[in-house]
From TrEMBL:
PROSITE patterns: PROKAR_LIPOPROTEIN, UBIQUITIN_ACTIVAT_2. PANTHER family: SUMO-ACTIVATING ENZYME SUBUNIT 2 (PTHR10953:SF5), UBIQUITIN-ACTIVATING ENZYME E1 (PTHR10953). The lineage of its organism: Eukaryota, Fungi, Dikarya, Ascomycota, Pezizomycotina. CDD domains: Uba2_SUMO (cd01489). It comes from Aspergillus saccharolyticus JOP 1030-1. Belongs to the ubiquitin-activating E1 family. Keywords: ATP-binding, Coiled coil, Metal-binding, Nucleotide-binding, Nucleus, Transferase, Ubl conjugation pathway, Zinc. The keyword Nucleotide-binding applies. This is Ubiquitin-activating enzyme E1-like. Its main location: nucleus. Residues 320-380 form the Ubiquitin-activating enzyme SCCH domain.
């Protein structure tokens, strides 16, 4: 029987609507590949796929549309080409691009029946959430972390949006914890990674051994309390000392100089700060000669054993050997470089030399501070911020997305669910009713309006005077914020004559208007539609499409703002995937109680998927 007949039998009248639908899939990674296959096999007629990345060797174990020969090619383009074979009649469009690019305007989003998020980062998720709210298109948001997965249906005005609940943001550590008082293996790993290597993203620091970066790691907390600023000053002094040591790179004495500085002298200096050790165990410096004698029998091949936690002597050998390998790589690069470029080596979890070095130096530091050392394998996970991705979780999550999409296509939002997948609960798949929008949400409680501008002419003054004060009746007290920060408030009048374009406002940008009067109106999100045509025929350089309703704000504080979490014992993971907790899907008691008639949760994280016995072992897809 033809596939269409099966679809009609199982989906009834919905089959036709699905075939005529036009949907957008954002992300062609772990969930995205599975979802694309599901959408095609479910007969969705037109699918647009976007992904900014190219295929990597490490994607092949789970992103099944990709093969070895596709490495370095665009994920979106390859996904389209390969998946087209499942359903040759479907219309597929692929974009090798960032969803945040200005070509993907609100008007473009509005052409889709459903948008599916299969992303791995907060920023892109937030952007799509805002665009879907502005375009009033339903969004199916999904994410996985190891064995956990979740799917959330988002519809403007009816359900919570992605930002209605607070999200955990990447953790950072106070500089003083990393530099002087580490207490966890991760503190030593962050130190080895960020202090000895330049980092690719962040702000200023120059205390690295393998080159000097203009930037600093986001893993450091730079808030200027007294303890921190003293540490930052120390960092500057040490930068100078390391600079001198760098001069001897490539010579026989290099390893000893580095070792003596970071594992002996710096530690003795730290130990001398007695106040610091009143409530903590003081660090014990290491001795180069002693370790050299103790490790004469250790082969350098020990570094290949990534499961074993190396002894201090083994760490010492790997330290010297990897330092030598890295120096040999850097030296010729430096000699060949002209004056303008300064070659550097940066940490990369997949670069064995840098990983060996970080493992060994982090472990030597851990020994000094009486912290448990870690295997190279564990160090790789922690230093590389790796969250295991599991093919089965992705596949199950992608299938749940399609089941929710059917409800969205039918307009049955009362039937749509927040669904989550977990390993240790009584059932593998659980669901919750969708919550109404949070009235204090900084995103969806805002009014939304489209602002048409001629980018060549429209100024901040045009927006403030003609639109906000004259058309929308704003008083004097309000501010304008874009992604790059505040562009106007009553004390920042210098920007008034500037063109919006020169302040980074382009097509698909958002400008948030925050009313600061005594009884403020809700925030207003202005979604920019920039078009040079708009300036033609003597039109105003800036117009608003329709006057939005701007009620007063509710008087309760806003709970959904992001929180900065510093100095915790958790890995400084730039958390890529959304966890159940982030989604407001706590795996705690509340939810277990809500799942009626099922056995008790069976342990925490240590058991395989437990299915509900009362249903004959069936996985309950939905309540
Ligand atoms: N702003 C964005 N625009 C378009 N695609 C994006 C954007 N941000 C992330 N993506 C894509 O979303 C996908 C997420 O997939 P996934 O979580 O499987 O990540 P991955 O990078 O493929 O794998 P891993 O991070 O586990 O190595 C990636 O392919 C990534 O390129
Ligand atoms: Zn919201």
């Amino acid at each position: 029987m033809a596939r269409d007949t099966y679809h009609r039998r199982s989906l009834g009248t919905l089959a036709r609507r699905i075939k005529e639908s036009r949907v957008l899939l954002v992300g062609a990674g772990g969930i995205g590949c599975e979802l694309l296959k599901n959408l095609l096999l479910s007969n969705f007629g037109e699918i647009h796929i976007i992904d900014l990345d190219t295929i990597d060797l490490s994607n092949l174990n789970r992103q099944f549309l990709f093969r070895f020969e596709h490495i370095k090619k665009s994920k979106a383009l390859v996904a389209k080409e390969v998946a087209q074979k499942f359903q040759p009649n479907a219309r597929l469009e692929a974009y090798h691009a960032n969803i945040k690019d200005s070509q993907f305007s609100v008007d473009w989003f509005a052409t889709f029946d459903i948008v599916f998020n299969a992303l791995d980062n907060l920023e892109a998720r937030r952007h799509v959430n805002r665009m879907c709210l502005a375009a009033d298109v339903p969004l199916i948001e999904s994410g996985t972390t190891g064995f956990n997965g979740q799917v959330q249906v988002i519809k403007k005005g009816l359900t919570e949006c992605y930002d209605c609940t607070s999200k955990e943001i990447p953790k950072s550590f106070p500089v003083c914890t990393i530099r002087s008082t580490p207490s966890q293996p991760i503190h030593c790993i962050v130190w080895a990674k960020s202090y000895l290597f330049p980092v690719k993203q962040g702000l200023t620091s120059s205390s690295e051994l393998f080159g000097i970066s203009d930037e600093d790691s986001g893993e450091f907390d730079h808030s200027e309390d007294a303890e921190n600023s003293a540490e930052i000053e120390n960092l500057r002094k040490e930068a100078q000392a390391l600079k001198e040591i760098r001069q001897s790179m490539g010579s026989d004495v290099f390893a000893k100089k580095v070792f003596d500085k970071v594992f002996t002298e710096d530690i003795e200096r730290l130990r001398g700060m007695e106040d610091m050790w009143k409530t903590r165990t003081p660090p014990e410096p290491l001795n180069f000669e002693k370790l050299n004698e103790e490790s004469t029998e250790v082969p350098t091949t020990i570094s290949c054993n990534d499961q074993k936690v190396w002894s201090t002597g083994e760490d010492f050998v790997v330290f010297k050997d990897s330092l030598d390998r890295l120096s040999k790589r850097l030296k010729p690069l430096q000699e060949a470089a002209n004056d303008d470029t300064k070659p550097i080596l940066v940490f990369d979890k997949d670069d064995v030399d840098t990983l060996d070095f970080v493992t060994a130096t982090a472990n030597l530091r851990a020994t000094i501070f009486k912290i448990d050392p870690k295997s190279k394998f564990d160090t790789k996970q922690m230093a590389g911020n790796i969250i295991p991705a599991i093919a089965t979780t992705n596949a199950m999550t992608a299938s749940l997305c399609v089941l929710q999409a059917f409800k969205v296509m039918k307009g049955e939002y009362d039937q749509a669910k927040m669904v989550f997948l977990e390993r240790s609960g009584a059932r593998a798949i659980n669901s919750d009713a969708l919550q109404p929008p949070n009235p204090n949400c900084p995103v969806c409680s805002s009014a939304i309006a489209r602002l048409k501008i001629d980018p060549k002419r429209a100024t901040v003054n045009d927006l403030v005077e003609q639109i906000l004060k004259m058309k929308l009746g704003y008083g004097e007290e309000f501010s304008l914020t874009t992604e790059s920060g505040i562009i106007y408030d009553p004390d920042l009048e210098d920007n008034l004559p500037k063109k919006l374009l020169d302040l980074g406002v382009k097509n698909a940008s958002f400008i948030t208007v925050i009313d600061d009067e005594d009884e403020p109106r809700v925030n207003l999100e202005l979604c920019v539609v920039a078009s040079e045509d708009h300036g033609a025929a003597g039109q105003d350089p800036i117009t608003i499409e329709s006057v939005p309703d701007l009620p007063r704000k509710p008087k309760t504080p806003t709970p959904a703002a992001s929180e900065q979490v510093n100095g915790t014992s958790e890995p400084a993971a730039a958390k890529l995937k959304r966890s159940a907790d982030e989604a407001g899907l706590s795996n705690g008691d509340d939810r277990v109680k809500r799942v009626a008639g099922v056995s008790e949760a069976n342990g925490v994280g240590s058991n395989p998927i437990v299915l509900d016995e009362s249903t004959g072992g069936a996985i309950l897809i939905d309540d």
